[in-house]
From TrEMBL:
<keyword id="KW-0238">DNA-binding</keyword>
<dbReference type="InterPro" id="IPR009057">
    <property type="entry name" value="Homeodomain-like_sf"/>
</dbReference>
<keyword id="KW-0805">Transcription regulation</keyword>
<dbReference type="Pfam" id="PF12833">
    <property type="entry name" value="HTH_18"/>
</dbReference>
<dbReference type="InterPro" id="IPR050204">
    <property type="entry name" value="AraC_XylS_family_regulators"/>
</dbReference>
<dbReference type="InterPro" id="IPR037923">
    <property type="entry name" value="HTH-like"/>
</dbReference>
<dbReference type="InterPro" id="IPR018060">
    <property type="entry name" value="HTH_AraC"/>
</dbReference>
<keyword id="KW-0804">Transcription</keyword>
<keyword id="KW-0010">Activator</keyword>
<feature type="domain" description="HTH araC/xylS-type">
    <location>
        <begin position="182"/>
        <end position="284"/>
    </location>
</feature>
<keyword id="KW-0963">Cytoplasm</keyword>
<dbReference type="GO" id="GO:0043565">
    <property type="term" value="F:sequence-specific DNA binding"/>
</dbReference>
<protein>
    <submittedName>
        <fullName>AraC-like DNA-binding protein</fullName>
    </submittedName>
</protein>
<dbReference type="InterPro" id="IPR018062">
    <property type="entry name" value="HTH_AraC-typ_CS"/>
</dbReference>
<dbReference type="GO" id="GO:0003700">
    <property type="term" value="F:DNA-binding transcription factor activity"/>
</dbReference>
Amino acid sequence: MDKPIIAYDRFDGGRRQVHRIVGTVPPELAAFGLAIIHGSRLLRGGVLEQPPGFRRSFDFYCLSHLVEGEGIYHNADTGQSREFHAGELVMAMPGTAQLYGGNASYYLEDSICFCGRTADALREAGIIADGVFSCGPVRRVGRIIETALEPTLFAQLKAATMLQQLLLELHAENLELSIGGSSAFAALLVELRRTPERWWTVGEMAKECGLSESHFRRAFHAYTGMPPKLYLDRMKLQLAAEMLISTGLTLAQVAARFGYVDPFHFSRRFKALNGMSPDSYRRHYRMR
């Protein structure tokens, strides 16, 4: 991570502030899809004091992990305002009008600013979003900054990889906190993979998790990002693809292993997911 490449522009008589990238992201990091453009360890701030109507936004992504103190978060776009505490983390997405800082106390943070198409894809998938999230007392953001302070390309790529891993972990951890019963979902997914020949109904899956069907559908989509039946279909076909290139079983035998009575129906579904027929897939990917 080199020198900061962020500028602060004020508009509307100082009532609107935009933080923007003015430097150039190294082409290797741009190609990688994720670049850390600035980081601060144990940056100490005071109580948040801004005039009424003040709006601040970033042209990039930002994480602020509150290490010590008490925080306050305002999102002018949604009207959300809430206090948060040490061990919690603020995520700020590009373009969102938001403010955060000390709340009647000092604010000691580890923060990272980053950009790239991988971050855009994570946002689009709902993996990262504006708001306050649990992060825990361990200085996970600080560790990434420490790595990014080394200017070598290897260190920059390593830090970006650590950041991507942290974003995925935070999503999983906070999802578990928000929906509850996540261990039941994890156990269900194991059971689905253990019995790939079975066509589970939504009612059977909901019963396995101890939920009503309507609650299960919502919670399952939040946990996996897709409806239960689509997940089941994709899981079967991905496992079938692996079996096609790792065994000598016939197409009908592979289809039967995953509950498809009709091999022709299996072939149609397989091609819809993978873009080629099972026979073509086997010829193309099987190691010789």
